[in-house]
Write the structure tokens for this entry.
Amino acid sequence: MTEQATTASVDQKTKEAYFTASQGQLIWQRFKKNRSALIGAWVLIFLILSGIFAPFLTPYDATVAGRDKDYMNGAPQIPQFCDDNGCSWRPFIYTTTRERSMATNFRWVSTVDDSLDGRRYVQFFVEGAEYRYFRIKANLPGEALDFEIPGLKFNTHLFGVDKGMIHIFGTDDLGKDIFSRTLTAINTSLAVGTIGVFIAFVLALVIGGVAGYYGGWIDSILQMLTDTVRTIPSIPLFMALAAFIPDTWSAEARFFFISMVLGLINWPTLARRIRTHLLTERNQEYVLAAQLCGASPGHVIRRHLLPSFTSYIIVDLVISFPYMVLSETALSFIGLGLKDPVNSLGVMLQNVTSADVLLNYQWYFIPVIFFIILVLAFVFVGDGLRDAADPYSDAGK
């Protein structure tokens, strides 16, 4: 009887917790039961943190300033602990020298020094190239818009070698470290997606909220605007914008311009969903009670209507993130988006289009793997959140 009473008490507390839980708590409980979504969330957190702390995690500057002129198009250097000369408690790589040989028609020939003297030992928390956190620099068209916040200066990197340089993902044709470029590119692509999603989110809230709350001729006009934006073809638009952007624009100006355009053309879908929800909820009793108490339309929308489906807005934003990243990558890949010296996933994917890379420099495809993992992580997390936010889904069963 005691065990039965205890079990009944636990079941009763579980039911009470379920019926008293907030919408966010219910979504989180359902989300945790989706294993693929949970794994995707951890992978996504890892990639986001890797991009944010890329200057510390990578040994060298991702731009031309950090290139290794003696190891261009170099293969990945994998640290090891043992070789024919014995084992070491410190991981090491070999010293590689390159020279042109007449026997290979003056192509580069690499010579590996696998002796004890040729070892380069890996060290942690080494000093290297200077980098800054919380630095904000705007170099936009027009001197009046230029400003810079210096931020905090550091020069400590997670790892390096006692002599020479190490490239665990290899180098490109200019000698730039692909590992450093990859993590920096993840951060850049996520930054473009964040700015684009934020712009689209604000526009969708304003336009969708006004259209859904007021209805009538205001709704008709705003829906005509929404349909007009939706019918604009993306690729011809960006081809025209690419021709419009002058070559004198800085990398920062091109970055902000591409982010703004991505946000300006991707708000209609979320705006329609917000409009549909407000059209349904605006005649509910709690909305009428707020209006009778003298609440303004902005207050009713902001404090009563939008919070009623905040979780669905968050889900929509997470789902739209990979499409923003895909858009930036695709545009940069075909030459209409970001360009060197900016490091983004799309810019790096431009380097894998030649047959020479496929045959001789396969390590150029490492950023492609990170790009696929990033997009899949966003997709799994977005699908998991969508199922968890849907009360009629089987995710919670």
In short: The chain has a mean pLDDT of 81. The chain has 15 helices and seven strands.
